[in-house]
C-alpha cells in the first residue's frame, strides 16, 4: 500500500494486497432467487467488431448443447441483444425482483430495451447511472438456474466494464476483435484491463476475418492480414477463433432469428467453456 493511500480502493489505480481486498468487497449480491454457475464477459477494445454477434452465437450454441444460458445486455446505450432474438415485450416484475424475458429456445435475456416503453427511446444517462443499472441487472433480476451467463459489454475500458469486473463474479472474458492492426492495439488495452482485474482471458475471436469466394472457395482478407496470433502469443492466450464475413448471419440478426445460426468457427471456445 502506498504511503499516500486514501483507502478508496474503487478509484485507486495502484495494485496492492489491500487494493485487491477492497475490490473484492465491491462484489454485488445476486438476487436471492438467482443461481448462476458461470459468468462470461464478452468484451472489445472498440465498437463495431461484432461483440453482440459473438454473444448471441455463443449463447445459442451452448443452449443447443443442452445448457441453460442467459444474456445480460450491459451495453445500456446501444442494446442490440433483444432485436437479435426478436424480443419486443416488456420484462415483468413483482416484489421479489425482475424476470428476464425468454427467447424461443429458452435463453434468459435482460436488456434495458425490455424495460423501456418505446424501444427506440434514447438513453441519455451519465456513466455512474449506467453502471448502476448494470449492477441492478445482477442484483434485482431473478436469474433462476443458469449454467452460463454471457455479459455483452459496451466497447472500451470505462465505467461499465469496470463495474462488471468488480461487481459480478466473472469467470472469464472473451475478447472480440477484427483484423486491422489498429484494432489489435486497442484489443491489448482490453486484455490488459482483464488482467489488471484478475479475470482470465479465455480466448480471442477475430470477427470479419475473411470472406470466402462462393465460386472457388478462396479466403479473401478484406480487411488485411490477421494480427491475432501476435496478440495471443504476447499474452499467452491459447484459444483463437476466426469468423468469416457471412451475409446470412446479418440477415438472421436483422430478423431476430439468431438461434437458427450455425457457426463452427466458435467450436474451440464452446469446448473450452464446457471444461470450465
Q: Count every beta strand, where a strand is a DSSP E run of 2 or more residues.
A: 12
State the end-to-end CA separation: 33 Å
Q: What does the largest sheet look like?
A: 8 strands, mixed
Q: How many domains make up the 3D coordinates?
A: 1
- Strands of the widest sheet, in order across it, are 5-6-2-7-1-8-9-12
Q: The CATH topology is what?
A: Rossmann fold
CATH homologous superfamily title: P-loop containing nucleotide triphosphate hydrolases
Q: What is the name of the CATH class?
A: Alpha Beta
**Whole-angstrom Rg:** 19 Å
Strand content: 15-25%
Q: What does the model show?
A:
Strand 5 and strand 6 (108-110) form a beta hairpin. The strands form 3 sheets. This protein has an 8-stranded mixed sheet with strand order 5-6-2-7-1-8-9-12, sandwiched between helices. It has a two-stranded antiparallel sheet with strand order 3-4. Strands 10-11 form a two-stranded antiparallel ribbon. It has one domain (30-274): P-loop containing nucleotide triphosphate hydrolases (Rossmann fold, 3-Layer(aba) Sandwich), CATH 3.40.50.300. The longest helix is centred in the last third of the chain and has 16 residues, at 181-196. The chain is globular and about 60 Å long. It is an alpha/beta fold and 276 residues long. The chain contains 9 helices and 12 strands. Residues 17-23 have low confidence and may be disordered. It has helices at 17-24, 51-64, 81-84, 127-139, 159-167, 181-196, 228-234, 247-254, 267-274, and strands at 36-43, 69-73, 92-94, 97-99, 101-102, 108-110, 146-152, 172-177, 201-206, 211-212, 219-220, 240-242.
